[in-house]
Amino acid sequence: MYRLPSSIFHLPSSSINYNMSSTVYIAGAGVISAIGNNGAEHLASFEREEAGMGEITHLDTVYRNKLPVAEVKADTKELASMAGLPDDMSRTALLSLIAAREALNDAVIQGLDGLRIGFVSANTVGGMDRSEHFFIDFLKDNQKGKLRNVYDHECGSMTEIVAEQLGIRDFMTTISTACSSSANAIFYAARLIKNNVLDVVVAGGVDAITKFTLNGFNTLMILDKARCKPFDEHRDGLNLGEGAGYLVLISEKVAKASKKPYCTLSGYNNSNDAYHQTASSPDGTGSYMAMKGALEKSGLKPSDIDYINLHGTGTPNNDSAEGTAVKRIFDPRYPPMSSTKSFTGHTLGASGGIEAVFSVLAIKHGIIYPNLRFETRMKELPFEPEKRFRKGQKINHVMSNSFGFGGNCTSLIFSKI
Amino acid sequence: MSVEKYITAGCIITKGIIYKDGTSVFENTHDNVEGVLASIYQYFRFHYPKYYKMDNLCKLGWLAAEILVKDSFQKENYQPEEVGLVLANANSSLDDDLKYFETTKEVSSPSLFVYTLPNIVIGEICIRNNFKGEHAFFIQDTFDAGFIEKQVNYLLDNNILQACICGWVDVVEQDYKAVLFLVEKKESEKSVRFSAENMERCFKNAGS
Questions:
Q1: What pTM value is reported for the model?
Q2: Which CATH class, in words, describes the domain spanning A266-415?
Q3: Which of A184, B104, B106, B125 has a CA positioned 20 to 30 A from the CA of residue A112?
Q4: Can you tell me the ipTM of this complex?
């Protein structure tokens, strides 16, 4: 097994600068969230403008009937049978396998056995859902509790379980940078291909809803007690969601021998405003630098972007910081934009991967997703998000934003071939 | 490739006494931890509004790092990405965790919650100094100088970093101790060779 240190900034010296100008193609996509178990179901939900939030049904918590969440519509047993894994497995690993497998099957790559293939998977909760089961018994009696339930606690365990199931042995790593995690996984995968370390990478991320995250976000007082309203003047926080989203990234060489890829990953950037543990700087410095850097990388102008998939969590802080940054870059000509978190909730470490899948599908099908429940434009912004589902659009370039705690901000740009 | 490395500065805060490069520079042995930290901040005339919102672990680590780099570190000799941190302690963020846990009985405190991780102290030091290099925080029963030496050697020998602040920052209730070393590749007037033995010696001299 070939593994690197967790940092996304260091590549092995032997691989540097082999063919830095080479294009990275997107050959496959897979997604599971509260609005569908695969790509096709997601497109149908978007067209029906049907959000996935509801009362808590699967998570055992005191916040049931108090806080809406966007759960995947299947209990852990059902997910296990979909994934073909035992049902005492972490929900995180199950969601990950279902979406990653869909992506790999979707890509239909010929002669996969002869290629160098990697799995770069992000998550923030690891097997925390099982750990929480363990502590129910353990706290009552420290001789009780199944240790099997804490065995896969680590974030890296999720990646290992899924890589094993997918038969990926050349390379794997886990990235955990809060809510930009899986955007950074895709970013890193692109660099692995550009530096000729790998030919094919399944990259994205996953997170399951856990008590740990629900209680944590509740402590931070950023959960909306109703369905979230991203980019609305009267927004009141986010809804927690869960799911997984993966893309299959391939090198130019592999692309030539495969079916026509969806699009390219033309730009990416990660920047940090180092302002606060959980909040963005009010002027959106980190998000501004990420969007600007991604545009520079792709060689595109702001006016070339046809759709922005916003980070748009629905918290007062994020939307105001992100909105300010969007204004700085795009004013006075704003492309259509929306937060699909109004459908899926905020899936944390999975959001960058899930929304990258949406961005790729937007190019493929020429669609713009609506920003549900938007009513009132934010006072400080001269623009507002798209309210209705639109198809038949000419979409050449899509920007996808993912901004995480700690000011860890990433923007990706996908471009039509 | 292994290169020679030097401890070019050291700072210890323990039992109300602060040592810079082995010499006592300030004493306040009669106060509790809060009083000691406040008196250090005032004595050195630091001015950093973000300091006041920090938990005790961050305050302790931040103060030790300030005193460590003060008059000893030529930041302009390095790129932000070339300076990093490797820290360890025995009690993680337990001091703040306990205070946070108290508040969950009434209204959970967001401002205590955001410090319930030990590596936040590294973030505070990096934000203050614009350090952007690799960093790691380890939880160990006791100060393991050999382990820290290995980590720092790896980072500097492979040119992942050119300078590294390493050591121990621990606080739980009224027990606290910070022992920080500045490690660089260039010798200076007062520097000693970077080694587990030299770190161990400083740590022990500072008492436990």
A1: 0.91
A2: alpha beta
A3: A184
A4: 0.82
